[in-house]
Write a structure and sequence with these properties.
Elements (H helix, E strand, L loop, with lengths): L12 H7 L29 H4 L23 H16 L28 H35 L7
């Protein structure tokens, strides 16, 4: 006679969400509208971004964004899309019809290199700008990693990821 393997008896997500925090709801909802607002509260607050009066992200290139930000600046997604658009715009440079360099910061007029839309001077300037942007990005990334490590050092148990 074959026996069935034992089943794992774990609590449901909703049960573990409140029981693991000693009765504290880890994802509190917005308390506005007498608790009927379906949106989660902003971290560290009891109300959602809408009820706190945060403005909408201005979006990107005429597109409206539905994310609310504390300061009214672009949200992280729109900032990333704008950065990507700037990078793509710099990569899509084409030489002028007469073979002259379109310039990195404006019309140059020198003869473009073979197989390259830029002249030597504008190519070096473009590469320096690219290297500067990469250094800035790496500095921001390294600072974020250090901040996360410092925060994890304060916790009793580090994050699982």
């Amino acid at each position: 006679m074959h026996r069935r393997p034992p089943r794992c008896r774990t609590p449901s997500w909703n049960a573990s969400r409140t029981s693991s925090g000693a009765g504290i709801d880890l994802t509190p909802g917005c308390e506005a509208d007498d608790g009927l607002c379906p949106t989660l509260a902003v971290v560290g607050d009891t109300r959602c971004a809408l009820h706190l009066g945060w403005p909408l992200c201005p979006g990107l290139d005429g597109y409206t964004c539905t994310i609310r930000t504390r300061t009214g600046n672009q949200c992280a997604t729109c900032q990333d899309q704008a950065r990507y658009a700037r990078i793509v715009a710099t990569l899509l440079v084409t030489a002028a019809d007469d073979g002259s360099c379109p310039g990195h910061d404006g019309p140059c007029g020198r003869a473009a290199l073979p197989e390259d839309p830029y002249c030597a001077r504008c190519r070096i300037t473009a590469q320096r700008d690219r290297d500067r942007v990469l250094r800035e990005w790496e500095a921001v990334r390294d600072a974020a990693v250090e901040a996360a490590r410092a925060q994890e050092a304060l916790e009793a148990a580090p994050a699982l990821f």
